[in-house]
Amino acid sequence: MDRLTRKQQDCLQNFIGFTNADKETAMACLMNNQWHVERAADYYYQNVGTLTRQLRQTGRPGGSPGKELFQKYANKPQDGLGPERIGPHGVTDLLHDLRLEATNRRVLILAWVMKAKTQCEFSQDEWLTGFSEMNITTINELAAYLGKLDKEMETDRSKYRQLYQFAFVYGKPERQRSMETDTALAYWHILFHDRYVLFDQFERYLKERDTKVITRDVWNLVFEFLEKINPDLSNYDDDGAWPTLLDNFVDYLRNERAAAA
């Protein structure tokens, strides 16, 4: 019980004294009921048969994969998000345990796997569903899973495209249709990992032209442009269905290269 707070230790002892349950079952009931002894006891008596079977089969009575980890990071008073949410302070603790910087692509992959709807937040449903789909239970397993997916992004274009498209919805304000250019650039740096020769020049162009926002259509076509167009622009079709922003970027780059020749 060393990892429990004094209050949690008291709750555990009271629950066991009241129900005569074993420690593992008592822990599961209390964690499923936010350490409220009376509610946990009601839960225990309503589900005692199921809890006993789960203990025999899995060694984790009543617990969903990842529930204990969720409780570790959720409900931080500094976040003020209400019950059953991991907020920015909880995410900071999570990244510390995963040994990841906030700008590491694996952090975005985590949000994608969890189908998170809000930046720097996870609901309990998102977290538990994600852990169930990943079939993992520990922080070390999570770290390994994210590392595996990150490596796959280098070769699996389908997954990489899904992550890229997720990033736009995740990164923009919920009620807006566009993403601020500074935010888009931050996400592009996370996603690209210096993958594309033309990206640095495209970033410079956006900053010089003081481009304010990136629409979803432009976001998606920037990916297609960087994936398909040669660094020398030799296969760029001026009559193709590219957005005006990319047509203007190509003109800008051609003029710059002609002046330097």
TrEMBL record:
Key words of the record: Ubl conjugation pathway
Record flagged with keyword Isomerase: no
GO term, biological process aspect, one: positive regulation of protein neddylation
A single GO cellular-component term on record: ubiquitin ligase complex
Keyword check for Ribosomal protein: no
DCUN1 domain mapped to chain residues: 61-254
Listed GO MF terms: cullin family protein binding; ubiquitin conjugating enzyme binding; ubiquitin-like protein binding
Pfam families referenced in this protein's UniProt entry, alphabetically: Cullin_binding, UBA_4
InterPro entries the record matches: DCN-prot (IPR014764), DCN1-like_PONY (IPR042460), PONY_dom (IPR005176), UBA-like_sf (IPR009060)
Function of the molecule: Neddylation of cullins play an essential role in the regulation of SCF-type complexes activity.
Entry-linked PANTHER family: DCN1-LIKE PROTEIN, RP42 RELATED
Protein name: Defective in cullin neddylation protein
UniProt source species: Mesorhabditis spiculigera
